[in-house]
Design brief:
With 189 residues, the chain is of the alpha+beta class. The protein has a single domain, classed as Beta Polymerase, domain 2 (2-Layer Sandwich). The protein is built from 7 helices and 9 strands.
Length: 189
Amino acid sequence: MDFSQSEIKNIIRTKEALKAHLAADQHWSIYNKSIMSNCFVAGGIFASLLRQEKQFNDIDVYFRDYSSREAMLNIFRNISTKHDYTEEKKAGSSAKYAITFTNSRVSYIVNEDSFCGSPETIKKNFDFVHCLGHYCLKTDKLSISKDTYDACMNKWLIVNPAYGRTKETVDKHRLNKFLDSGYVWRDNA
């Protein structure tokens, strides 16, 4: 299935909204370009941005390699002592832990070591289809399938087929979080 012209415009607007958000945070501009070229944003933020919701919970940041991840963690740790970021390790369903840096505007989540790799490899660990979009900072490309777009726009809860679980075996905390926010089950096609 192809995207309609209005869907394409919405995807472009979504990419620009994410870029504007990152640009508005003064700390993103100080990052080393080689680190950022190995970084991408993925996850539920795209559902919120596609639906033009005013708020979203966090930005999930992933890295293609461990050294870029560690360099970014060091940058965040350095600025967190000088600015309004706080660091916290959080347990998550898709990772043993994620380090979260929070300021008054948003939380940036840098996921654990085992989550370094290509977007395609990492997204196999994502539980729901609406989380499968990703934005590559190096190429300035937002990748989203029609199935992901539709799941985001319609708040459909569909288990990612690559995840290897069923709706009965997904993490109940995450499941309830989405159901409580208005998502509805839709069986995998």
